[in-house]
Amino acid sequence: MSTSPWVSPIVVIIKKNGIDIRLCFDYRLVNSLTRLMIYPMPLINVLVEDLDKVLWYCSLDMASGFWVVTMTDRARAISAFITSFGLFEWNRMPFGLKNAPPPDLSTDAG
Description:
By secondary structure, the protein is α+β, with helices and mostly antiparallel strands. The chain has one domain. Helix content is 25%, strand content 15%. The strands form two sheets. It has a two-stranded antiparallel sheet. A hairpin with a 6-residue loop joins strand 1 (10-14) and strand 2 (21-25). It starts with 9 loop residues before the first strand and ends with a helix. The mean pLDDT is 84.
């Protein structure tokens, strides 16, 4: 449970199969009040040069990369959402927040 002064609503979407649901978080108000953080993209030639320094390579599917990024206490409070069960916060980066992709990119580059 959360005591955050921030709150965003949930929108329930029924999937195409007519049975399953998807929970969507409406962060439009939060995003309108959030200042965009700018992160430089790594240069591909630098990344390729770094490949020369390793013995083994690993390929990962980053489709759920957001779930790897932990949230700061401040960001957790801003991510708060309300349900009929109460007010909750994310521990990991959710989809939909304005600055969600840049920290994910900076983590990949680091």
